[in-house]
Automatic annotation (TrEMBL):
Keywords, alphabetical: Carbohydrate metabolism, Glycosidase, Hydrolase, Polysaccharide degradation, Signal
Organism taxonomic ancestry: Bacteria, Bacillati, Actinomycetota, Actinomycetes, Micromonosporales
Organism annotation: Micromonospora arida
Annotated ranges, domain CBM2: 575-686
Pfam families referenced in this protein's UniProt entry, alphabetically: CBM_2, fn3
InterPro entries found in the cross-reference section: CBD2, CBM2/CBM3_carb-bd_dom_sf, CBM2_carb-bd_dom_sf, FN3_dom, FN3_sf, GH, Glyco_hydro_b, Ig-like_fold
Signal peptide annotation: 1-22
Name the UniProt record assigns to this protein: Alpha-L-arabinofuranosidase
UniProt-listed SUPFAM superfamilies: (Trans)glycosidases (SSF51445), Carbohydrate-binding domain (SSF49384), Fibronectin type III (SSF49265), Glycosyl hydrolase domain (SSF51011)
Residues of the Fibronectin type-III domain: 487-577
Amino acid sequence: MRKPKTRAALLAGLLLTASALAGVNPPTARAAADPVTVTVNTRAGLATVPDTALGVNHAIWDSNLGTSETSDLLRDAGVQMMRYPGGSYADIYHWKDHTAPGGYVAPGTDFDTFMAAVRRVGAQPMIIANYGTGTPAEAADWVRYANVTKGYDARYWTVGNENYGNGHYGSAWEADDHPDKSATQYARLVVEYADAMKAVDPSIKVGAVLTMPGNWPDGITAGSDPGPWNQTVLSIAGPKIDFVDVHWYPGGTAAESLARVNHLPDATYLLRQQLARYAGPNADRIGISFTELNVDAGRNTQPAALFLADVYSGLLENGVFTAHWWNVHNGMGTVTQVAGQTDYGDFGMLSSGACTEDGSVCQPPLNTPFAPYHGLSMMKLFAKTGDQFVRAGTDEPLVTAHAVRRSNGDLAVLLVNKDPDNDHPVTIDYAGFTPSAVAPTVSTLTNGATGIVTSQSGSATSRTLPAYSLTTLVLRPAGATAGRPAAPGQPTASGVTDRAATITWPASTPGASPIAKYEVHRQNGAVSEQLGETASTSFTVGNLVPGSRYTVNVLARDTAGRVSWASPPLTFATGSPAASTCTVRFTTANDWGNGYIGGVEIINNGSRPINGWTLTWTWPTAWQQVSSGWSATWEQVGTAVRVTPTTDNRQIAAGGTVSAGFVGAYGGPNVLPTAFTLNGTICATG
């Protein structure tokens, strides 16, 4: 959490002393020479937008938490979930007497006032139970007051906030009065909290705090814990929780923050892998929330608006049930110039009306929307409850695309131009959707704008995106959509090997005509590859690549040729052969958060010695690498790793082994390889 530290800081403008204004006037935007190709593929279905999607944080040190003006602004921006009592303050907050020893509590911020604001906005609450200085009994009493006494029907309750920041890993900002500050102790108490809270109201959902894959302290094991934070918490508390809660501040420059949004598919994939591996039976019932998001550079200006729209879309299309901005009001930080606009370094999306301590720089009047507020408003226009995200992509890293398909047949496309200097012309190709000739509804947020401009103009297939802008197109389909079959249900995979998998799904409900067949499509970026078709509700896919991740959808086609929406996505990974003439054991140890000591052991399962060998694998992401190595010659080109022997270990005897080590590094989620090739043969893994 990013929060004010003292009452004095709040009253003086909340947070940091401002620096002098710096920067120059922005250059005039110019059009890039080559059009960007955008591909929108409605056959490649992703997650459906939930009614909790768009969230924000409210904090008890914000005296405007309960005002009608603030609530009405949040309602107008489409807020669906509101978190309370405010990040790290949650671990010092006692709800019964509305106190936070060591922190500042503003008037008019008690729980009932917060719930009145939630109801005025039309949102749902996300409440943080005090882990750091509280007890399970205190949390249970809060549930009783909220849902039994007051009838608020508060469904979502998280146990603590960033509790890995309690000093267990060497850095301490989170209050924690427990003598034992280990991940193991946190997990044990989560179980006690969940039991006590659900004894009062069994219908609530209880969440536990996890770390973001690829971000500190992910991967680090401390003290006597059996593994890193996520593994430890899930292994103990997994059967008792209903969701996990993650925060992400990507850091860096504006350009770096915007680029790191591409970490999200792998981060959510790793979180689900961790849930499946450690959280016990039926782990797929456990949801994922991201309840703090913000940037370091351009918090009040266009980088934050672009990041908000891009990261909310990226999380929601990957099945996260809510994404929250930190926060509504926060206060003055370091004042800079960002792309020609004054940035106050304020984590809030609405102005606090604060000034620097010397009064030389003041924010706009209280509740003036900053750029991320407009980014949230764009999300309201783009992704509505019940819409299904579909795959969209571009051939230009500075332009990203997201798309949703609506129940009435419309398609909405969100285009993000992250280039601060250049307009980008785009051409848009559609797969599985034909837009009508009617001009689309176009909503645009440009750099420095005080709001979104909406019109009906231009073409569905080409336009120019202004520099540093958000653009949403809403398109009508060319033909009638009535009578099509319903989408097939959630597919599952069984019998997954290195080369094959059986996909099974619930049948589609016919529309105007009987179902003729089902088509199984693989997502390959924004392009679909049809893997096969069948008249039944099961299909075995062959010729898969070992050690690869596959996301597939099933579509139903009826006897009249009408095609359903895509099913929900199914993601699975192939492994290595069950048996081979070689086995590779890949190990990691001593992870320090962005690197580790790695090792490979090669076993010759054959009856003859191997004289000279080459081991190869491909990293799953572009931000993984071999930094150095020993006992072999290590080479990496792109994501491909090549390991060859020294003169001492060229030969591997029949039944024998050789080993080599390396220093691995990663700058994002560390998805480990699962397929290795020795002299052209795919090895088993041990």
